[in-house]
Amino acid sequence: MSNAFIEMIKNRRTIYNLGDALPVSEEHVTRLIKEAVKHSPSSFNSQTSRVVILFGAEHQKLWNMTKEALRKIVPEQAFASTEQKIDSFAAGAGSILFFEDQDIVKGLQEQFPLYADNFPIWSEQASGIAQFAVWTALSQENIGASLQHYNPLIDNDVQTAWNVPANWILRAQMVFGSINEPAGDKDFMDDDVRFKVFK
């Protein structure tokens, strides 16, 4: 199947072996992230997604605080492998913190009580779409990335370190950088298991 967008989706892969040498400027990456999030759809055009972008020392700070938070809960004999994983994220060029603004979610629940139970779900969907859009946009610039979820373990530390409003709830951390080693082959389940087509 030949479709430019499908090819972009195929090109977006989880890259674990990252370096800190970006093929484009930090300014270009920042603009790319902003545009991808800005044009990602959300229910009722609620625009609940919020983003903090970290480069250099600030990126290192994120993974140092994550390592120290994990040190408190991971058994000492198992910590070496945990530390190695966190150091591999720190080796990247930057991180993107994805949040969802709960004040908007609550406001919509009050404004449209009939859909109140759905707005938190739709907020999570909007976050996932924004993450996917950013990830795909980065891959088009030959920037590797992987998506991590150390929330809520690091929520308070993140909020303090970058003065994040209390109504922003952390949903994911995307580390990005140069691709030191490409992703391996990806297996797919049989289409008959995943899809049903009726005519």
Automatic annotation (TrEMBL):
Alphabetical UniProt keywords: Cytoplasm, Oxidoreductase
Nitroreductase domain: residues covered:
9-177
The protein's location, in the record's own words, is: Cytoplasm
One Gene Ontology BP term is: cellular response to oxidative stress
Domain of life here? Answer: Bacteria
Q: Looking at the Swiss-Prot or TrEMBL record, what is one Pfam family this protein matches? A: Nitroreductase
| Record has Cytoplasm as a keyword | yes
Cytoplasm keyword on record: yes
Q: Gene Ontology cellular component? A: cytoplasm
Q: Which InterPro entries match?
A: Frm2/Hbn1 (IPR033877), Nitroreductase (IPR029479), Nitroreductase-like (IPR000415)
Single annotated GO MF: oxidoreductase activity
| Stated name of the protein | Nitroreductase family protein
Task: Provide the taxonomic classification.
Answer: Bacteria, Pseudomonadati, Pseudomonadota, Gammaproteobacteria, Enterobacterales
